[in-house]
UniProtKB/TrEMBL annotation:
This is Alpha-ketoacid dehydrogenase subunit beta. It comes from Sporolactobacillus sp. Y61. Its EC number is 1.2.4.-. SUPFAM superfamilies: Thiamin diphosphate-binding fold (THDP-binding) (SSF52518), TK C-terminal domain-like (SSF52922). SMART domains: Transket_pyr (SM00861).
Length: 326
């Protein structure tokens, strides 16, 4: 199988669907000749034209409002928000309109739109361009939230998101754009709400999201040298969440660490931890549920401090070793 990058996988997913579904179009700032803030739409305006690769003014609120209206009238827009931090400017149209329409019209109005959101730290973009705010959106009924951790999942989840009849927020970590992986040429879907067991183990479950999956896999390699076998669960979508896979893993290992890049306080890890505690997996726990998340500070510009602000492999090693020893 050929190998492509995470960003190429997302572009290929969008392009393949646009070739046979004229209702799908993309819109965003500088997504034409410039190719978008991170080059994800390179070459798409040459293939699909300016009518279907729509360059917009710098107004996330306007982009999201237009997309909501277009989706309600039968189109399937894909929005690019240059940095996920800027989605707050679009919050009214997204949270108060797009998320509510299908419910308020008794299912007669569908809102099939995808909002692409480059997020996360590590690229030196500092506090206003490096946040991980996905937990905010998981709180809103009517929105689905996707967070792919590799190229294969990015393509399959993007195709599923485009084909979904609800607003889907698609969180892409900027540091994953150049990560490569095996990706089939043909179209395929990964259903929203299906987690993936990235690695099997018997001593501790690590539930990791986004770029933390990659770091958790590195941590698992090191833990194995100590005789600790970690099972890695990638939820892939936060809403809907595949509870069954997580619960079954915790029942097997009896220990769990939940890891995400977003600030620990109020982060989605608390939702996963509560879900485990409220399930029958609670009776199988041999140690308290632990969470690792970002520290309570804006993301620093200084590279050293930026790295300190979010969980790293060493942090996972330390927590897992403590959990197993308890």
């Amino acid at each position: 199988m050929r190998t492509i990058t995470y960003s190429e996988a997302i572009r290929e997913a969008m392009s393949q669907i646009m070739r046979h579904n004229p209702d799908v179009f993309i819109m965003g700032e500088d997504i034409g000749v410039y190719g978008g803030a991170f080059g994800l739409t390179n070459g798409m305006i040459e293939e699909f034209g300016a009518e279907r690769v729509r360059i917009t003014p710098i107004s996330e609120a306007a982009i999201t409002g237009c997309a909501t209206g277009a989706a309600m009238t039968g189109m399937r827009p894909i929005l690019e928000i240059q940095f996920s931090d800027f989605v707050m400017i679009a919050a009214d149209n997204l949270v108060n309109q797009a998320a509510k329409m299908r419910y308020m019209f008794g299912g007669k109005a569908k809102v099939p739109m995808v909002v692409r959101l480059p997020g996360g730290s590590g690229a030196g973009f500092a506090a206003q361009h490096s946040q991980s705010l996905e937990a905010w959106m998981t709180h809103i009924p009517g929105l689905k939230v996707v967070q792919p951790s590799n190229a294969y999942d990015a393509k399959g989840l993007m195709i599923a998101a485009i084909n979904d009849d609800n607003p889907v927020l698609f969180y892409e970590h900027k540091l994953l754009y150049n990560e490569t992986g095996e990706v089939p040429r043909e179209e395929y879907e990964i259903p929203l709400g299906k987690a993936h067991v990235k690695r099997t183990g018997s001593d501790v479950t690590i539930v990791a999201t986004g770029i933390m999956v990659k770091k958790a896999m590195e941590a698992a390699e090191e833990l194995e040298k100590d005789g600790i076998l970690a099972e890695i669960i990638d939820p892939r979508t936060l809403v809907p969440l595949d509870q069954e896979v997580i619960i079954n893993s915790v029942k097997k290992t009896g220990r769990v660490l939940v890891v995400h890049e977003a600030v620990k306080r109020g982060g989605y890890g608390a939702e996963i931890a509560s879900m485990i505690a409220e399930s029958d997996a609670f009776d199988y726990l041999d140690a308290p549920i632990k969470r690792l998340g970002g520290v309570e500070t804006p993301i620093p510009y200084n590279p050293g401090l930026e790295q300190k602000a979010v969980p790293q492999v060493q942090d996972m090693l330390q927590e897992c070793r403590k959990i197993v020893m308890e």
